[in-house]
UniProtKB/TrEMBL annotation, chain A:
<dbReference type="GO" id="GO:0020037">
    <property type="term" value="F:heme binding"/>
</dbReference>
<keyword id="KW-1133">Transmembrane helix</keyword>
<dbReference type="InterPro" id="IPR045187">
    <property type="entry name" value="CcO_II"/>
</dbReference>
<keyword id="KW-0186">Copper</keyword>
<keyword id="KW-0408">Iron</keyword>
<dbReference type="GO" id="GO:0042773">
    <property type="term" value="P:ATP synthesis coupled electron transport"/>
</dbReference>
<dbReference type="InterPro" id="IPR011759">
    <property type="entry name" value="Cyt_c_oxidase_su2_TM_dom"/>
</dbReference>
From TrEMBL, chain B:
<protein>
    <submittedName>
        <fullName>Uncharacterized protein</fullName>
    </submittedName>
</protein>
<feature type="transmembrane region" description="Helical">
    <location>
        <begin position="12"/>
        <end position="35"/>
    </location>
</feature>
<keyword id="KW-0812">Transmembrane</keyword>
<keyword id="KW-0472">Membrane</keyword>
<keyword id="KW-1133">Transmembrane helix</keyword>
Automatic annotation (TrEMBL), chain C:
<feature type="transmembrane region" description="Helical">
    <location>
        <begin position="356"/>
        <end position="380"/>
    </location>
</feature>
<keyword id="KW-0472">Membrane</keyword>
<keyword id="KW-0679">Respiratory chain</keyword>
<keyword id="KW-0408">Iron</keyword>
<feature type="transmembrane region" description="Helical">
    <location>
        <begin position="428"/>
        <end position="449"/>
    </location>
</feature>
<comment type="pathway">
    <text>Energy metabolism; oxidative phosphorylation.</text>
</comment>
<feature type="transmembrane region" description="Helical">
    <location>
        <begin position="469"/>
        <end position="492"/>
    </location>
</feature>
Length: 376, 45, 536
């Protein structure tokens, strides 16, 4: 054949192969696994580096052998094929040699992997336990030892913002230097709460509880998202953890509890709310909980999520009870969740009021917290 | 000589095909082996 | 070996019927093989168009082209079309064409079954296409199939009518490939010419033997799983619903019990093609034929017992996790042995670099790389970091595009002269090779980085830190897609004319590959081996 073409060929293979594994071994920040910020992910990171380096060496060997063969065993160079090569001692024993070499590499990797796996699966006593509930499409965090609950929604930003799809309205707050246990579950479909810096992933399964843990070593804000396809809003449910020092964490807990107690008191008070107050509160609740499906203009997504603007229930005074029932108890067989356990009376009253008065809906009633209490 | 309409060969082919079909049927059953366990609710923690 | 080698169709029983009847009523392995190959070619462009849409949507952050549900529907169907509609039919087409010719059989063992297993495919393809449009044309069509090809409940239970069409399409595809597999195993066991012992068969035949056995064993499990899904959706059962005493994870176990062997179903035929291409162009016999045969057997067996490595994050017991991890890492032994044997086949050979050989060498290199990332992914704690990121996407595209698709390209170029009687344009073939190989790497190599940085798969929109990687990936993807127009052109050009191909178009063909296909003229007569050849 043409020698020139062959030269060109091997040159391309050399550069191609070199590029292939040099970029793999490139230890630059953004080319490698997310830098760890906890003891456990550090251990995993080291394991990742071990397999990467072993893999790079193997690729270098394979590429080297192929390049050597391409240079030396070419027809164009007048190479004579050795028709008995496979019958020599090497041909008779290669099927033992190759597996033995591969097996020894395998066992090296498997033994260190196994010990790291033991750390991942250790169930030592935790200082803080957080239940992470995935639902379409937001995260709810419940602190099991304290009566604190956080609902974490996507913060809407423009696609040019550095934090686009990376920020939430209300992040999870955790202390550094403490062992934190996560109990993972879901309220509808599979989700996967993943923040690579601090925690190895386990999926959130409806009806089941999975467990994982972390021991954060550095303060900072860590961002991840949902890693198990959960439908329409899968790309839009970031998970954010703010790791703070233990003292700051204690202060935050106190402040948070006071805030929650105040909101609860407000909701259970027998106050009669004015329309403007309910509408403002309702819009806030709607944006946080309902907008992902029913959209900002209340039009829903045709064929997928029903429109609220112009809907029969939201425009008919007789159907108020139905409206409240759907919000409180959900709608069987659809993606509509039961909001009763998740929102307080005031929130539900406000959002129902909002839905019956916004986007040109004409039902027009004001719903008060006591109506919801009665409907529960 | 072997030809596709050779009766003996046809029978042999059919026999192999039926055995393979039974294997496929068993594989289908395998997927339902979990069934009693699932229906009895034994997998719920 | 003297065989009937004339072009004369009136020589034996009869020639092909004319017109549409030739194809619709066909029981001829060559015609059915041709139909399989054209079907696969069509689906290649169908699935490729979906990939082009996916890359266009991911070109930059923001949702630009269609809704998130449509995007994930395309992700689902890209996978289903490429796996069931493209790679498997293409490999089955090659099996239909080549296996009877290699082992000296006049036709497949069960020719009418062969016809049925092909004609189920267009039906399945139509069902799959309907699944895309059904949510829009039916009132209350519900959500499109936005689950990804794994169809995981409970999300798939939430889906609309499109999911039902998908389930029926999978049933149809499953029946088709089970029937085709039964046919192939029967042919290999019963139809070999006298003297063609099992251990003399070309590697491609062995590869398909294991592939077919795998399919027979695992395809029904998928059928069972999607049937349960159908019941959960419509008949009030709760196989996969924890609220009713079921288990959402059960579906994952069933799916991956099928899904992992399926990977080897896609890979093995191409390994078989490599086992012919490399010795041919290295002009020396295959190194370690026996080791390769047993290696493929071990690979198939191991492949059936490591399925849960796709679901390390579901929270299995420590013992089970360790078992699946070690089992998975051990797969590198047969795979390493195979790749090494191919390199040793090139060793001290006398190589020329025609298009099939170029693909062959590229496969060894890139598939080794996929093997390396495969071992990385097999390591459980690390996988908990990689799980469902683009790293996984990059890994399996490196495994399946070189491992399966490039193997099929190598096969197409290797056998085109035999099938059509014309030599393809070698220069264009080589341009096609470099174009696809470079653009393929451009597409999928950056995805390792975006995956390590944490970009999830199956997302319609991503944060701006991943923009550069995705732009490179998209540009590579468009080039990769475009290269297939050249592929189509080469195939049409070769069918329509070109230099006359001799019976043995490759100087080294048949060295160490004792198949009988090269004893027939190019193109072979409509009915070959009506007199059984005898191998000494």
């Amino acid at each position: 054949m043409l020698p020139r073409r062959d030269k060109c060929l091997s040159a391309l293979f050399i550069t191609g192969g070199a590029w292939l594994f040099s970029s793999m071994a490139h230890a630059a920040y953004e080319y490698n696994l997310t830098p760890p910020a906890s003891t456990l992910t550090q251990e995993i990171f080291d394991l990742h580096m071990l397999t990467t380096i072993v893999g790079t060496i193997i690729m270098a060997l394979v590429t080297g052998m192929i390049i050597y063969a391409l240079i030396n065993f070419r027809h164009a160079k007048g190479a004579i094929p050795d028709q008995e090569f496979h019958n020599g001692w090497f041909g008779r024993w290669a099927w033992v040699l190759v597996p033995v070499i591969v097996l020894s590499i395998d066992l090296t990797i498997a033994s260190s992997a196994s010990s790291t796996l033991n750390s991942v699966e250790s169930h030592d006593k935790a200082d803080v336990t957080v239940k992470v509930i995935g639902s379409q499409w937001k995260w709810t965090y419940e602190y099991m030892d304290d009566d604190i609950k956080i609902v974490s929604n996507l913060k809407k930003l423009e696609p040019t913002d550095p934090l686009y799809l990376r920020d939430v309205d209300d992040p999870l707050v955790l202390p550094t230097g403490k062992r934190v246990r996560f109990l993972l579950t879901s309220s509808d479909v599979l989700h996967n709460w993943g923040i690579a810096e601090i925690v190895p992933k386990k999926i959130n399964i409806p009806g089941y509880i999975n467990e994982t843990w972390t021991h954060i070593t550095k303060e900072g804000t860590y961002r991840g998202q949902c890693y198990e396809n959960c439908g329409t809003g899968h790309a839009f449910m970031p998970a954010v953890v703010r790791a703070v020092s233990p003292t700051e964490y204690e202060q935050w807990k106190v402040a948070r509890k006071a805030q929650q107690a105040q909101a609860a008191a407000e909701a259970s008070a027998d106050k009669v709310w004015a329309k403007a107050e309910l509408m403002a509160k309702g819009e806030e609740v709607y944006t946080k909980n309902c907008l992902a499906c029913h959209q900002a203009n209340g039009q829903g997504l045709p064929g997928v999520f029903p429109a609220l603007a112009g809907s029969k229930i939201a425009n008919n005074t007789a159907a108020l009870a139905d409206h409240i029932a759907i919000v409180v108890k959900g709608k069987a067989g659809t993606a509509m969740a039961a909001w009763g356990p998740q929102l307080n009376d005031l929130d539900i009253a406000a959002v129902v009021t909002y839905e019956r008065n916004a986007w040109g809906n004409t039902a027009g009633e004001l719903v008060q917290p006591k109506d919801i209490k009665a409907a529960r | 000589m072997k030809a596709p309409d050779d009766d003996k060969l046809r029978k042999a082919n059919l026999r192999v095909a039926i055995i393979l079909g039974i294997i496929a049927g068993l594989a289908l059953l395998y997927s339902f082996i979990y069934l009693p366990k699932v229906l009895s609710g034994g997998v719920v923690p | 070996m003297s065989v009937a080698t004339t072009h004369d169709h009136h020589h034996d029983h009869h020639g092909p019927p004319r017109g549409w009847q030739r194809w619709v009523y066909s029981t001829n392995h060559k015609d059915i093989g041709t139909m399989y190959l054209f079907f696969a070619l069509f689906m290649l462009f169908f699935g490729g168009a979906m990939a082009m849409y996916i890359r266009a949507e991911l070109f930059m952050p923001g949702v630009q082209l269609a809704s998130p549900d449509f995007y994930n529907n395309m992700v689902t169907d890209h996978a289903l079309v490429m796996v069931f509609g493209m790679v498997m039919p293409a490999a089955a087409g090659m099996a239909n064409w080549m296996i009877p010719m290699m082992i000296g059989a006049p036709d497949m063992a069960l020719p009418r079954l062969n016809n049925l297993s092909f004609w189920l495919l267009p039906a399945a393809a139509i069902l799959l296409m309907l699944s895309i449009v059904a949510p829009y044309i039916f009132p209350d069509g519900g959500t499109p199939v936005n689950t990804g090809w794994t169809l995981l409940p409970p999300l798939s239970v939430q889906n609309g009518i499109g999911m039902d069409f998908t389930i029926f399409a999978i049933h149809t595809l499953g029946v088709s490939s089970i029937l085709a597999s039964i046919n192939i195993v029967t042919t290999i066991l019963n139809m070999r010419a006298p003297g063609m012992t099992m251990m003399k068969m070309p590697l491609f035949v062995w590869a398909w033997f294991f592939t077919a056995l795998l399919l027979i064993a695992v395809m029904p499990v998928l059928a069972g799983a999607v049937t349960m899904l159908l019941f959960d959706r419509h008949f009030g059962t709760s196989f996969f619903d924890a609220a009713g005493g079921g288990d959402p994870i059960l579906f994952q176990h069933l799916f991956w019990f099928f899904g992992h062997p399926e990977v080897y179903v896609l890979l093995l035929p191409s390994i078989g093609v490599l086992g012919l291409v490399i010795p041919t162009f290295a002009r020396k016999p295959l190194f370690g034929y026996k080791a390769l045969v047993y290696g493929m057997g071990v690979l198939a067996a191991l492949g059936m017992v490591v399925w849960a490595h796709h679901q390390y994050t579901i929270g299995m017991s420590l013992v089970a996790t360790n078992y699946f991890m070690i089992g998975t890492i051990l797969i590198s032994i047969p795979v390493g042995l195979m790749l090494m044997n191919f390199i040793f086949t090139m060793w001290r050979g006398s190589m020329t670099f025609e298009t099939p050989m170029l693909f062959g060498i590229a496969i060894i290199l890139m598939f080794s790389f996929a093997g390396v990332t495969g071992v990385m992914l097999a390591v459980v704690p690390a996988d908990m970091q990689y799980h469902d990121t683009m790293f996984v996407v990059a890994h399996f595209h490196y495994a399946l595009i070189p491992g399966a698709v490039f193997g099929l390209y190598a096969g197409v170029f290797y056998w085109l002269p035999k099938w059509t009687g014309h030599m393809y344009n070698e220069r264009l073939g080589q341009i096609f090779f470099w174009w696809t190989t470079i653009s393929f790497n451009l597409t999928f190599f950056p995805q390792h980085f975006s995956g390590l940085a944490g970009m999830p798969r199956r997302i319609v929109d991503y944060s701006i830190q991943y923009t550069e990687f995705n732009m490179i990936s998209s540009i590579g993807g468009f080039l990769f897609g475009l290269s297939h127009l050249l592929f189509l052109f080469i195939i049409i050009q070769t069918i329509r004319g070109g230099a006359k191909a001799p019976a043995k178009p490759w100087e080294g063909s048949q060295i160490g590959t004792p198949g009988l296909e090269w004893t027939l003229p190019s193109p072979p007569p409509f009915h070959s081996f009506t007199e059984a050849p005898v191998i000494k």
